[in-house]
What does this fold into?
Amino acid sequence: MLDFNPHKTNCTSCAACYSICPIHCISMEKDAEGFMYPYASDTCIHCGLCEEICPAVHHTHQEESFDQQCFAATHKDSNIWQRSTSGGAFASICEAWSDQDTMIVGAAWDGLRVHHITVIGASNILPLHKSKYIASDIEDTFIQIREYLELGKKVVFSGTPCQVAGLHAFLQNKWPNLLTVDFICHGTGSPDVFAECVKQISKQFGKEVTHYEFRAKPSQIHEENYISKIQSGNSKLYITNDPYIQLFLKQDCLRPSCGANCMYRVKKRPSDITIADFKGLHQIFPELVGNKHNYSTIVFNTPKGASLLPKLQQNMHMLPCSIDDIIRFNPLFGQQTKASEHRDSFFAEFTKHPAKAIEMFTTPYLPLKRRLRTRIYYFLPAWLQKRLYNLACLIKKSNK
Ligand SMILES: Cc1cc2nc3c(=O)[nH]c(=O)nc-3n(C[C@H](O)[C@H](O)[C@H](O)COP(=O)(O)OP(=O)(O)OC[C@H]3O[C@@H](n4cnc5c(N)ncnc54)[C@H](O)[C@@H]3O)c2cc1C
It folds into this structure.
């Protein structure tokens, strides 16, 4: 049986053990930092299945040897691009793989928490769009996926690399009808820290926040940004310097198994396709300076993933690049990060005085209007943006 006092740096909360237990004696429970871990009740029959499949115990890599194919891509449909975090790779992959019966599984908001849900058909993926930089609960979705695959139907599963590894471990066999999509992952943050940040923002906003959106794309702002959209009923506000995002990016509120301890930042990914922001776009494709849309990275890791290329090309503008380009500008693809020096002191304070911890470790949010300079830049014609961009590069070089 698994050691249910897990080393917290290993357990990713993938929920493979919870899903496989034949007598459902494993539950996922929250610790003081707000992260879920599995626990077995006294009814455990010691069958050993949970340990046999646990990806943290038996870490396996992609077995297929395949020359990964990489692209920068953005959706041709502006509406789909607008509701996606980067270039709309996820939506396009769903369109390319799915028929109207396909089950699509991904992370959706449940109020201000995040959990995995299933929808049927690519036309119903709206709740799955957008990155939610908070740990998402798998709940019973692995079990639902297995039942659907057993009916001979198709499934797309999208999640963190550790969730994809958890799904493969749970399913054990290879399923030709299953397509898995992961992303280059910074890590997932504590849902309780997020909830506390929202409480503080509500106080500052003067209204209770009811909806949240990370990486919002308010009209005419097309850079890769960390603008958050907060909503209370019909009132909405775009904010920069989001306190939760500050903690997330500094890695102060990440799950212990993320960041420096992540076992999945490897070139051979567990998924068929890896997606991400496309970083270094203008350095790799200078002809795209002035382009109004941000791009996704798409990496095909298996022949199954690569078989979607012709269909993706119908929906997306796709530019081939090398795996070295991806690794150079987005090193989290294959590299762990240095742990945050402040994580322990942050959580020591947070578990005692949540509000004080947020106050001590972040600065208050700013409404978007302070970033007028960036907004003006994106209103300029492409040729002028290109000139300004080149000038900024020259100034940067001469300052080095
Ligand atoms: C927690 C997290 C960390 C990330 N870190 C990086 C990074 O360091 N570098 C980088 O380049 N890109 C990172 N990404 C990926 C990036 O934010 C975009 O999701 C990616 O570029 C795909 O964009 P899109 O336009 O195709 O997708 P969208 O249409 O916006 O789709 C987002 C997809 O992500 C899934 N998803 C959203 N939130 C979660 C969650 N909490 N847990 C599991 N799955 C989720 C959804 O199910 C959906 O499939 C991260 C994403 C998440 C969720």
Remarks:
- The chain has one domain: 64-400.
- The first helix runs from residue 16 to 20.
- The mean pLDDT is 90.
